[in-house]
Amino acid sequence: MGKPQFSKWSDKVSITTQSLPGEIFVTVEPKGPREALVTWELPDKDQKWNYGVDITYKLKQLGGCNEVQTGAKEPVTLLNVQEKQIPLENLQPGSLYEVTVTPRRPPSLHSSIVTPKTVRTFRTKNDVPTGPPQNLQSTVRKDSELGFKWDAPECIQQNGNITQYEFELVGLDEWNEGTREGVTPRQNTLIDQLQPGSLYRIKVRAYTAEGPGPWSDSLEIRTTGSELGPPRELTAVQTKATQIQLTWLPPYPEKAIVTAYRIRYSPRADDSNPTEVELSGDELTCSGYKSPIITSANLCATIKGLQPSTTYRFAVQGQSSSGNWGEWSSDYFSTTRNDDNELLGGSLKLLSAGHDNLKVKWTPPAVIGEKIDKYDLFISVASVLDQNPKKFDVSGHTTDYHFRNLDSVTQYNVTVQGTSEGNKLWFISSVFSTTDFAEGLLSWLPAPTDLHLIEKSDTMLHVDWVPPEIFDPEQRELITHHRVTIAPFDPTTGKTGPSKNYTVPYPGNSIKFEGLRPETIYNITVQAGTNSGYGHILWGTYSTLAPGQRHILRLLNRTPTTLNVAWEPVWGRAHSGYTLTARTLYSVYGNVRLQQIKSFDVDASQTEFVIRGLHPSTVYNVTLTPKDHNEVAWGAYATLPPGWFVVKNLKQCDKTDFAVSMSWEPVELDMASDYQVRYLRLKEHDGIWTEEEARPAKELLCPKDGCGRLCYLVFNLPHNPSEYVFQVRAKVDGEWNHWKSAPKKMTSSEPLNIRRSCCIVPPPYFVDNIGAPGTFWEVDVNPAATENNVTRYYVVVDERDPPGDTNWTELTDKVTANKMKIPYYVAASFNLETLPEPRKVRIGDGSVIGGYLNYPLVKGKKYNYEVYTIWNVTGAPLVGRLRDVRGWDWLFNQIYFLWIFLPIICLLVLCCLIWMVYKYCKDRHRSRKEHSRLVTNGQHAPLLEEQKAGMNENMRQLESRLDKMRGAVDGRARGDFEDGYMKGYKDANKLGSANAARRRLDDEYGARDDRFHEGYVKGLKDAGMTGMTTSMHNLAQRTGGGYSAGFAQGYKDGNSGIFGDRVTPSLVSRLDEQYAGQEDFKQGYVDGFKEGASSRVGDRSRFEDSRRLQQSLTELTERLTSLEKTKGDEIHSTKIYHVYNQQPEGATMTSTGAQLAQELEEIGSTSRRSTLRRHYTPGDYLKQDAEEGYNSLSRNRRSLSASALAANREDKSGKWAEQLIDLVSEPLDTTIARINNYTSSSNDRGQGDVVEEKYYRSHKEEHSSR
């Protein structure tokens, strides 16, 4: 057997199998309620996978159903998906789905290898519900409430999460028409404020985030109770032994037709089994009933079969056409007579009179008064023979009666007859007259005010009013309702038709009259009522529209002689204008001619007009006619009665614990000449009104112009203003009108700038010392020479001495100025009306002048004042100023005892003048002698003449520099932090606790800035106060460095007393050593030390060194001036030079010793005839300090005398001020003599610096030896 043979191997072939990819990245984005987009992606290492994926999605939760309700749903699979984005469609809204993405298996892949899956869940977007809520039903049913509940829509119809439910409740009766809508997140609701006995229909629908679904089925339900309210004003009109006649008004509002009434009555002693009588139709007529209270709207009934002399309780209720009985009226009690033959009577005087009523009171004789058990009252017209007088009766215990429904301005004969057991015992009669519409009934119950038409249509008038003001709480509680009447008025016949009476329960103040006739004028009256009578009457007239007519013309305001009307520009403004007419229709006064027309042409741009010159208590037809249109607008309005010119928009604009500031709009067209304010404390029983003096209207200016209001301030009240009521009245044509009360609530809605301009700032404290001697200053205030366009004069008081600059834009009252740290304030203001000619004004007299309280001045303090004149020519204000200073005349006026010494003062002045003349003559003689001696010694006159012009210039420059130095000395670097620090340091000992300090900081210093607060808390801490809050502690750490830190440290040291009471050289040296280079700190330390030391020792003067220096500079200026007059050009021969830095202005101001030595050498080599000769003056010591600030005592000084520099090149800080003060402390003649003496010596030596040195040393030696 042979050996097997093999062929060669084939070429090698490589095969690479592809593994399954790793995790597949999957995102699902819902695109809508029924669509979603699936995006899948392979990892980077598996990008070559090309077998695709299978996508399976399955519904997990349908809409609002849970998984159990949803059940098992078949999945949907998409095979071999190659696209990376696959839309899913036909999904369910608001439902939860699960998506699974699986890579497809290659054919060669072994089945044991598990394929990875990626699973994602998502929820489709919501859709509106497709089904309504289920099972709507009522859960609560009351007279004015209905409660409902329901189930959610079926879960498959919810289409997402239900977010809320909306319900709609519709009234189905005439009296409850309207729709109530609401939303709730719950499946129930409670609806209140419904009408009793009324039918309603409700439906509900569900909301998702996408919107509402369909409405549910409606449910109709009626509230419990009756749709009828209680009948009104049940009253007995006549009583007999066995019967009582009753009358009442139907329920209001009339929700349904009343078909019958039921009367319930029982003896008061036995109410257990009342009797009920049902009446309807003709049984309710008032025919044959006689009573002044019965009107056409009243219903009447007679209850018979009663027991004599028995008190009965009555009540009445109505029945609607639906058969429901309404509410019972309130109980009414009435007593039957003992016998029908009893007679009534009374005694007589008039209590009150109105336009349709009289109230009388009688008093029978004491002998028979107790025997009278009945009174008969008869009333008849006195001017004619009345065949049928009206008769009324009351019991013997009644001593007053109120006759109603009478004619206005008519005399009536009233008769009262008293009887006992049928026998006439007493008779009295008198005549009384009714008034017009302006007067009322009860003297204590005023009329409502401001009858206002809210809206109207062709069949409706909606009006409201302001209830009467009653300040006595006991009387205010007596008001139970408002009685409102409406009656049509026929302008053709001038007759008023039958009136309808309505009752509005108090404190209700509006009523809507419906069912009226179109294009009809109606008289409306309103009066407040109690159980025993009515108050004064408010009367107005309005008219309905024609069908389809727009409500264009409206009444804004009315007075006794004006009507202010306004209209909407419905015709545009491009026409030729309007014709406005007012035609007289009716008047209370018989002398007013009717059908008279007033006509006015009104520009097309206007939308408001005031018709003036009308008659009081008169009805006018006001018609507005566009000249280019056929449509007209009209309305009927009545003017107010006499006495009703009242202010408008009266309000309290600001108040403090001691004062209240008020403002109001003036009476229409500025017709009032004067106004008066009064106030009453409400807590005081039987309190008396405090009446302020009447003020002319022109004097009640507001602080600034352009307000259109009048301003008034009541201050120094003994109690808080909230305990008072304030009233204002106006005088028109010499007659005072009714008072108008200011609302107690302060108006706060106005912007701050309006309040500042149109409201007098009240004082936050009790203003003392008004009128005290020395607290006022009489000055002259004159009008401007050019009065055209002058808007205001301001008298401004400047508390600075001397006065400084003022900013007229910051002019304000004293309280505000103090808060703003402004040292000047307005004490008074005038305009052209109040300042027509020059007048005397007392600044500080404690009165209010032109919108500013003129606060009393501080006795003994010096003040200045200015008068600002404000012109407004081009719309921008122009300001003029006139300044005056309180002078010696004022001082003598205030310090009156100085007048006693006036002769002595005059004698002293005369002696001084004689001595000055003598000295002048002596000095002039010596001057000539010295001048002659100087010429013989070689100092020629031409040299002096060369320097004369320069000397004058130098003197002017010296005076200018002195002025600058005074300003620099006056200036202080102290600011808000330092002020706060001093107050806090002092308050720490006064307040005692951190809580009290915090309250003081918030209450009194809350308006100050943060730096003040930081200083205040730092002062508390440094003074040793403990227990401060964390915020206060942190605030105290924010001091920082520099001037403020030095001030605080210096104040502490000065207040402690360890370093004495004055800034000494040793203290300055210590500062130089410890705080080298910290100039601001050292300056602050010195200022603070002085303040602290002054506070400790009680020295009220601050910066004493500054004051002494200021005084010395002033004396020095006067001395140099005297030297110039007495010595002339010889001043130059003294060779007193001033060494100063020759560097340009702005360069460094510090001179080294070498530089100053060089200048000394230059001076020594300078010829006496040189025109560059520089003149030394003691004031030049302060040249640098005037530019850099006086208080830096530790800074290097640039200006010292040449001799001082030659003797000691070191800067001796703090010495220059003392040297200057010493220099000017000697008498003038001593200075002149010393100058003459050393001038002679200088001629021999020829060196000016030595002369100065000798002069200086001699001066110091002489003064040190004193």
TrEMBL record:
Coiled coil: 941-968
Protein name (record): Fibronectin type-III domain-containing protein
Cross-referenced SUPFAM superfamilies: Fibronectin type III
Stretches the record annotates as Disordered: 1163-1183, 1236-1266
Organism: Caenorhabditis briggsae
Keywords, sorted A to Z: Coiled coil, Membrane, Repeat, Transmembrane, Transmembrane helix
PROSITE patterns in the cross-refs: FN3
Bias type Basic and acidic residues, positions: 1251-1266
Domain of life per record: Eukaryota
TM annotation in the entry: 896-918
Fibronectin type-III domain location: 20-124, 132-226, 230-339, 344-437, 447-548, 549-643
One Pfam family cited in the UniProt record for this chain: fn3
Compositional bias per record (Polar residues), positions renumbered to this chain: 1236-1245
SMART domains tied to this protein: FN3
